[in-house]
Amino acid sequence: xxxxxxxxxxxxxxxxxxxxxxxxxxxxxxxxxxxxxxxxxxxxxxxxxxxxxxxxxxxxxxxxxxxxxxxxxxxxxxxxxxxx
Length: 84
What we know:
Helix content: under 10%
CATH class: Alpha Beta
Oligomer: single chain
Shape: flat
CATH architecture: 2-Layer Sandwich
Strand order of the largest sheet: 1-2-3-4-5
CATH topology: Pantoate--beta-alanine Ligase, Chain: A,domain 2
Largest sheet: 5 strands, antiparallel
Mean pLDDT: 81
Distance between the termini: 33 Å
Number of domains: 1
Structural class: mainly beta
């Protein structure tokens, strides 16, 4: 997914696509506003089950909240690398 927005705006707009190998193609649109995420996607069936579903995919709606993670720890901000 690709975010569109700037550091001044509390909202970010995402547009993208997921691919499940040999199974499905899923275009996605998502809006993030502060701690909330709203998304809509459509699951396009590419597998052999396509005939059983008459080529119809599935509309998917999502809602997320990330406000539970307000308490930050310095270890959450670090990227751990293997030592040589």
